[in-house]
Design brief:
Blueprint: H1 3-26, H2 29-41, H3 47-67, H4 71-89, H5 98-125
Helix pairs in contact: 1-3, 1-5, 2-3, 3-4, 4-5
């Protein structure tokens, strides 16, 4: 195994863990209710269905990343999901509290770094 393949595998595992841990956390009852409420408040149609679709996308994308199989599909699923969820959850420009606004802003840009990693997966899978 080359150094490149070890680094590539480690990077995919870390990205997969990010999404799969998020799924596990979101499945807690209080989190589930919170997410559905946020989606509804953001005018997402069928918020409960959207929540479950989001979890399915994160799970499938994460598992595909771990397996190293269908990496283009995994990357596109997670790219679209990350952009959509970032624009729904991290609208820092709408938050009046300066501390919470700064926190949301940091999350917003952290998600763009995840997108950078997913773009690298997409490049290497092609």
């Amino acid at each position: 195994m080359t150094t490149y393949s070890v680094i590539d595998t480690a990077a995919r595992m870390l990205m997969a863990l990010y999404f799969l841990i998020s799924v596990a956390y979101a499945l807690r009852t209080t989190e589930r209710l919170h997410h559905v409420q946020v989606l509804g408040n953001s005018h997402v149609p069928f918020p409960a269905l959207a929540f479950w679709i989001g979890l399915a996308v994160m799970t499938v994308g994460g598992v595909l990343l771990i397996c190293g199989w269908q990496l283009q599909i995994a990357a596109w699923l997670l790219i679209v999901f990350t952009i959509a969820s970032n624009l729904i959850y991290n609208r820092y420009w709408k938050v009046p509290d300066p501390v919470l606004r700064k926190f949301k802003q940091m999350l917003f840009y952290a998600d763009w770094s995840v997108l950078g990693g997913l773009l690298l997966v997409l490049r290497d899978a092609g």
